[in-house]
């Protein structure tokens, strides 16, 4: 493996990291993101990754070099030393323009982010496991379950391929891509147990999905509640997410249909060319049967008994 990709994208931090939202997708992270924006923060989330797909290879590299077991990480070709995992410098490159971070893929790096930004305040979004699994099965995990998206990942085609590969790698390190069941429950419970061990009670704010409020959030962040800010944004993007995934599904299907149509036209063209040549070859073969007669007529002219001649008695 050559040099790390992150080394080719140096970027200095333009604002200090102030808030780490360490909660998995579909646990109220969207509500927190909207609330933070209303309070003047600039949070990074999956939405920002999607609007800047050039960062996807960097997050994939972060997973490979930081979250995979040591024996599975790539090494330098010459001296076989392991590439260093991502730390503050690398996360500054990825998140330097933001002062808050939430949702995947960043949430998978809870330990690394807490160690990189010990001065940042930590918010933990939670949801009952059964409800979370059902929500994920009806939204995020569709990217990994629908066959057409699996094809984009396997073949590396369409604009969905980088995202589906990133998602596959994220949940690969999270629960081995079990996507539900006992192993996923264990991974879910371990994630939150690890976060609570990293950030002791009193230094974190836990917000249960659908039960956030301005007062506790503003007190924890030590900021004033803006006037006229309205009700706390307890939101659920599940429906809009599925709608977006269905639209992406159709785009991929149309792409495969276009490719299939082009292949079919090409095959039909080759078949027609082949049969045209084959039929001409057979026609030439049939003509050769008459060559002796043609030669006979050419040698003897038109003399002889013709159809219009009368024989003498």
UniProtKB/TrEMBL annotation:
It comes from Westerdykella ornata. This is NAD dependent epimerase/dehydratase. The chain crosses the membrane at residues 255-275. Keywords: Membrane, Transmembrane, Transmembrane helix.
